[in-house]
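Quality-control log, excerpt.
Job 1 of 2 completed; input and output follow.
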Amino acid sequence: MAKKKGREKQAGVLPNGSEGTSSFEVLEKEFSPLRQRLLKRDEEREEVLAKARKALRESKQAIFALHRGDVRRAETSLKEVQEVLGALRKKGEVYSAFHAAVQEWVEAVIFLHFIKTGKLLGPSRFLRMGVSDEDYLLGLCDATGELARRAVVLGAGGDVEGVRSIRSVVEDVFGVLLGFDLRNGELRKKSDAIKWNLKRVEEVWSSLPR
C-alpha cells in the first residue's frame, strides 16, 4: 500500500497535457524580460564598441596632427576623446576595444605633453582619471615609438637639442621598465619594443654633428 502511494505521489509531479501548455505560456512570459535584457545589452555593447573605435581613430588622428605640427587640433580632439571615454568607462571596462581606445588616447596625450613641455607625463594624472596601470603602461610603450619617429624628423632637420631631449626620455622609460617583472604578454612585448625605439633614437643621435 505504501508503494502504491509513493507511485501516486511521483506521478503527481509530472504535468498533464493542460499543465504542459500553461507551463510553456508561463515560461514564455518569464523569458520575455530576459530576452529584452539581452537585447538591451547587445545594443549597449554595439554602442560602446562603436564609440570606442571612433575614439581610437580620433586619437590616432591627433598623433598624426602632432607630427604635422598641428598642436591645437590635437588638443581639441584629445579633449573630446577624454569625455567620450569617461562616459563609456562604466560599461566599457569589460571590452578590449575600450581598453585599446584608452591606450591610444594615453599614447597621444603623452606625446602631446612631451611636444609642449619636453617632459614625460607620468602615471599619477592618468590614474586619477580612472586609467588602469596596464592601459597607462601600454600607452607609454607605444608613445616611445612616436617619440622615435619625431627624433628621425628632428634629426633630419639638424635639431640636436630636440633629439637629445627625446633620447633622454626614451632612455629613462626603458630604464624604469627594466625594474618591472612584466608577465602580461602584450605588455611584455610592447616593453621589449622600447629597446628598439631607443636604438633608433641612438642611431639618429650618433649621426648628428656635435
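Job 2 of 2 completed; input and output follow.
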Amino acid sequence: MKKLLILVASLTTLALSLSQTAAAPNPLVIAHRGASAQAPENTLPAFQLAWEQGADGIEADFQLTKDGHIVCFHDKDTKRLAGRPLAVADATLEELRQFDVGSIQPQAADRALRSWNGDKYKDVRIPTIAEVFTTVPRGKKIFIEIKCGPEIIDPLLRELASSGLTHDQVVVICFDSAVLKSLKERDPKWRSGWLCSFEKRANGKPRNAPHESSKP
C-alpha cells in the first residue's frame, strides 16, 4: 500500500509539474492501471471504467513481446494474473492472448475468492497499446510506464505516430533512465518522467530497475 501511495503521489506531482498552463490548484486524478480496484488491472474494462469515473488520466504498463508487439501488462510473467507462468518477453502476442486475465482477483488472499463480480470480466484478454490508446478521450492523459528495456522505443514511437494522441496527452515514464534517454534521442518532443523508488535492496542501494520483480 505504501508503495502504491508513493507511486500515485509521484505521478500526480509529475503531471502537475509538466503542466505549464494550469492555474487551478486541483491535482490531476490518474487511475493507476485503470480503475484497478473495481476491474482487472491494465485491461480495457479497467481503463473504460476509469474514464467513466471521471479520471483525468490513466497510468498503464507496457512491454514488448517476442514478436515485436507492445502489450499492456505489468508483471514479467503471467502467473499472478492468469495462474500459469509465461514470460512476456518470451511469448508472442497470440500466445498471450490465450490467457484470461479477468477471472482472478490478485488482491484476495484466498485464491477461492479471486473472482471479479461473478463472470462480469470473464475472458478479458491482455490488450495491445493501440487498443489502450483508443480508449483515451480527447483532452485526457495517458502515463505510459515502460516495463522493459530501450528496445521498445522504436515500436512505441510508431504506435504514438499513428495513435492520434497529442504531445500534451502523453507522458512516458520508467524506472530505467536508459529507456528515457533512448526516447529523447529519437524524438525529444514526447514528454517523459524518471520514476525512482524509496525501496532498497539488501545491499542498501535503491531498487530502481524496471523489471526486477513481478510484485504489484
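Post-run check on job 2. Residues 2-18+30-194 form a domain with the TIM Barrel fold (CATH 3.20.20.190).
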